[in-house]
Amino acid sequence: MEIADLLNTESIISSMKVTSKKQTLQELAQRAAELTGLKERLIFDTLLERERLGTTGVGRGIAIPHGKLADLDHLYGLFARLDEPVDFDAIDDQPVDLIFLLLAPESAGADHLKALARVSRLLRDNGTCEKLRGTDDPDAIFALLSDAAAHRAA
Hints:
The protein is α/β, with parallel strands linked by helices. It has one domain: Mannitol-specific EII, Chain A (3-Layer(aba) Sandwich). It has helices spanning 3-6, 21-36, 40-53, 110-123, 126-133, 138-153; strands at 12-16, 57-59, 62-63, 66-69, 76-86, 96-105.
């Protein structure tokens, strides 16, 4: 599973203006609904339910919200770069400004976990994150995410 299999330029939000975790999840759900054809409320509720289990704010300004939905036919990714960091209840108590949303079919099993691991490894790279924070061009962000992942896999 490659990052380019999860994302395209339409699934990149290069400049999101939000002020809270809830608003961030609402905006992500709205965009994900456009990409997947599923109802925005269903996606939002799934994301909130996952956050109740424990934060998806993994530290260093990064969050990886995720969930499984019965009506999906494949994995979907969505990347957002926030204009201003928001409190995301992250494990290091730092605000979040880079978010990679991952949605999977309920039947995804190991593929969902592999995709989460791939995204996590990619966003652990400080150089990649600094470059992502330094551009608001969706094409550049897509290239950074897919190229960095390809280089890390090699």
